[in-house]
Design a protein that fits this description.
about 210 residues, mainly beta, Glucose Oxidase, domain 1, two-stranded antiparallel ribbon, globular
């Protein structure tokens, strides 16, 4: 049986979120312990909590929300590559000699995967514009990161987000690739079919390919 890796962060009230984002909370509305027929909760959280995708509308003046995007972007062959860089922008040279031909999804594994779900650090690495342009030349349609953003924490103009949008490359953020060997996998990371919003949590898994 092919091995399956769950590369999602667990969404809970203790999960670290981007400063200023609404953390996850669950309000119990009905309770079996109180004599109700079912347990029922109301959920509240930012769509960028945990492992998630950004819809184009997050940073671009276009009405493209999670419900508008083809699901096949988030389903198919993907390559996991570890990058030793500890800070700053990832460049093509950081990836070494990797072959992306026929593998249109790249997931970058950095030190940030060693962070627990409760930990937050602003010193994560992120893709350079040079890297994004190079990935577009290789035919990449999705870039996944274990860090919280495709731009530096202090960035005001968000060049990574805008460059990905320019090339039509989707992104995943806040993956957890700890314990996942570099190599080729099938990625399954479907967003919820949400209309009119800027992103969606995903349940991201990798399945080994024979």
């Amino acid at each position: 049986m092919p091995r399956i890796y769950d590369v999602s962060r667990t969404i809970s009230p203790t999960l670290a979120v981007w400063p200023g984002d609404e953390p996850f909370s669950a309000e119990r509305q009905l309770d079996l312990a109180r004599g109700d027929r079912v347990n029922l909760t109301r959920l509240s959280f930012s769509p960028h909590v945990g492992t998630h995708m950004d819809a184009p509308w997050h940073t671009e003046p276009v009405e493209r929300h999670p419900a508008d995007l083809p699901v096949d972007i988030y389903l198919g062959p993907a390559r996991v590559v570890s990058v030793p860089r500890r800070a700053g922008a990832i460049t093509p040279a950081d990836l070494g000699e990797i072959a992306l031909a026929g593998v249109p999804r790249l997931l970058i594994h950095t030190w940030y995967s060693d962070q627990t779900d409760e930990q937050w650090s602003p010193d994560f690495v992120y893709p350079s514009v040079e890297l994004i342009d190079w990935l577009a030349e290789q035919g990449v349609i999705l870039l996944g990161l274990d860090s919280p953003s495709v731009d530096a924490f202090t960035s005001a103009d968000l060049p990574g987000h805008h460059r990905l949008a320019h090339h039509g490359i989707a992104n995943l953020e806040n993956l957890c690739l700890k314990g996942v060997p570099d190599g080729l996998y099938e990625l399954i990371a479907l967003p919820l079919k949400l209309a009119g919003v800027c992103g969606s949590p995903v349940r991201a898994v990798l399945r080994e390919l024979a």
